[in-house]
Amino acid sequence: MASTPMDLDDAPSTTATPSFNLTRNLGANVPSTTAVSDVIASYRPTKLFQRDDIKEGKSQPSILSIDFDDPGELCMTSESDETIQIYNVKDGRHDKSLLSKKYGVKLAKFTHTSSSIIYASTQQNDAIRYLATHDNSFIRYFEGHEGAVTNLALHPGADNFISCSVDNTVRIWNIGTKQWTGKLFLNTPYLSAWDPSGNVFAVASPGSGSILLYDYRNYEKAPFSVFDVLKARGPADTEASFRGWTKLEFSNDGKHILLGSRGNGHFLLDSFDGSLKAYLKKPGASTRRLGVGEMEGGNMESSGECCFAPDGRYVISGAKSDLLVWDTLMTPGSDKVLEPAHVLEEKREAAVVAYNPRYNMIASADQDLMFWLPDPTA
Prior knowledge:
five-stranded mixed beta sheet; 3 helices; 40% strand; WD40-repeat-containing domain protein
């Protein structure tokens, strides 16, 4: 099977940067809106980005998170050397590097305006920072958390967001004001996610082994539903029901919830009743990253090595090597185990994974950033 040649992002030169035309890479007659099911098996690692300062022999940072802006034209990473890196997706080039040396940075996310971002601090304090990327200036600080922030979840239709923290609070913010607008006290509320309508949000608590669903309009009241992960764990061991959680995400069709785990598989749950639809079994070793909120042996915690494709049908996950793809329309075995439908080969570890919301493109990373595109010749 032929593969797409992979470009290496070299040090800046005087020659023009080659275009990373997405339509060209998808094939002459295959637009970027081609159905995911038509291209999912043909993804290949296509563009590798290596930091210029790393090539000069400096210590190699790790990529802590990946995010795309709403139009899918910019990709952003937060990195362990207190930098934010922004890449132009269509041209396949590095755009800019922003420094946050004083406060550190993790969980960087675009707002619905591509020129502004929010991110969590890693030093000095536990504030969330709102930054204008065009001039690297702070617009606002969101203060209140008294422990490390573990998750940021932006509302799908407004610039409101949820933050979770090891201080056992979930806070709801309006990006236009520095004071939180809502607060919930919960046991280990380390992960959160919005449903695609923006009317419901979920909070995952590994300490209680549960996922709590709230009506956004009445979140001060008790959750309207609580899913027991221990009860729905299927073939996973008991420990996986209470620790090692890495990601919480609704599918874009609203039917499923993905609970990522650093264990032997991920949990695909029915978003209406919390039942296990499938245990997405990993055939090989998982990544080295810890579950969210965990601190062991100096390893970094995960910001999510798995995600849904935009069509809601496929789940993509990183691993010690390769990308794994599960087709949620496939029928799992009697024990609810679903094996990967495709294994996309790549020797590098994929500890963080994100799917572009507008184009058929995947980004993965551990210490280097990789762009994946469908191979039109496959």
